[in-house]
Amino acid sequence: MDTAAANDSQSMMDWFVAVRSPHDILEKHGSFLACELVFFTMAGLTLIHALRHGGRLKYLWLSTILHGLTVESVSYFVPDIDNFWHAQSMMMFLGRRLPLHIILFYPAFLYTASVSVSKLRLRWWAEPFAVGLAVVLLDVPFDIMGIKLLWWTWHDTDPNIYDRHYWVPWTSYYFHATFAAGFTIVFHGSHFLFTKAGRFQSAGCVKELVCSVLTGVLSMPMGVLEFLPLYHPLHDTYHIHSEVCVLLILFMYAAVVWAADRNPADLARSSKGWFNLDELSLIIIIHYTFYVLLVVFAKPERVMSLGVHEPVGPCSETTPVYTAFGHVLSKKKYLCLDGYDEGYFDFNCVKDKPHAGMNWYTVCGNPYPNHVEYICVVTAFCIGGFFFYWQALSRSSTLPQTNAVKKFKAD
Prior knowledge:
This protein has helices at residues 3-16, 22-28, 30-53, 57-77, 100-118, 127-148, 170-194, 205-227, 231-237, 242-261, 279-297, 371-394; strands at residues 17-19, 84-86, 91-93, 98-99, 152-154, 164-165, 168-169, 304-308, 318-322, 328-332, 345-346, 360-365. The protein is mainly alpha-helical. It has a domain at 30-88 and 99-302 and 382-394. The strands form five sheets. A three-stranded antiparallel sheet has the order 1-3-4. Strands 8-12-11 form a three-stranded antiparallel sheet, with no helix packed on it. Strand 3 and strand 4 (98-99) form a beta hairpin. Helix 4 crosses helix 8 and helix 6 packs antiparallel against helix 10.
C-alpha cells in the first residue's frame, strides 16, 4: 500500500471511529465522563433484563439501537435538522459527531420506558402515548443538565430550536415524545401484522429481526408524522411559541393515557409488594439520583467542552430551512462570535477565540444564573419521574408474558 492510500485508509478509520483519553475528559469535563459511565451502566442493565426475561425483549433492545442509529445519522447529515453537536467522549463515530454513549441512550431510555409502561396494562391504542410521556420524564433532567454542562451545544439561530426552556429547545421534548410513540407503534404494529404471537412473545428469529429492522427504519418517519398536524402549522404558519405546541401535544398524550387507564385491563392494578428491585428499578434509582447530585454539586463554570461545534464565520450569511409544509425559514449559516445568543457558554477559559472557518474548538461553561432555581426544577422533575416509575414498576402488574407463544390478544 502506498503512502497516499495508507493516509486515506487512516483518514477513513479516523472518520468512522476516534478515541479520547478518559483522563483528559476527567480533567476538563468530569461530568461528561460521569454521564458516559452512567449510560454504559443503564444500557448494560437493560440488556441483562432483556436476556433474563427473553421473548421479544431482546429484540426490543436491538430495535432501540437500530432506531437510535437511524435518528442520529439522519440528524447529522440532513442539513435542515443538523443543529446540535456533542462534546468529545471516549469513543466517537461518524466524523466525531456520534458518541458511543448516545447510541446506548436509546435502550437506556426507550427500553426502560417501554417495559415499564407495559406493566400498566393499558389498552393498545394508549400505550404508545404513555411510552412517549415516560421517555420525556426520563429526558427532562438529562436535557436541562446536559446543556448546562455542555455535553452538547445547539445551533443558536435555527428556528426549529430557537424557543428554549432552561436553554433546552422546547422541540426536544416534542421530539422525544413523538419519536418514542412512533417507535412503539411500529414495534408492536409490525409484530401484529407478521405474527400471531403475544406482544412480547417471540415468533422466531427471522420474523423478529424483520420487525426490528422495520422499527429501526420506520420509527423516525412515524415520529415525524406526529410533528405535521400540530407543530408545523402552529409554529411555522402562525408563529406560535414552541412551548405552546409542546404543552398541547403532551396534554393530548396524557388525556389519551388517562382515558385508557380509567377503564383498566385485567391485572392492571395488581401488586405483590411495596417495592420491586430489579434491573429497571435500579436504572431509575441511578438515573434520577445522578441528576440530583449533578445539579447540587456540579460546577458548570469549570467546564471546558472540546469537540465539533457550530462552524464559526461571517455574521451576515444565512441559509434556508425547509419545513414539511413548504415554508422556507432562515438561520445563520455560521456562529457569529459578536452576536450569538447562547447564555450557557462563552470562551473565557481559552486564550484565543475560534476564528472563521473553525468547527473544532473549546467552549467554556457559565455559572448558574440562579443555582437554587436549578436545584428546585431538576429535583422536582426527578421526584416526579421517580414517582411515576415506582408506580409502574412496583405498584402495577407483572411483566406481560414473554415465553409461551399464543394467539395475539390486545390488552
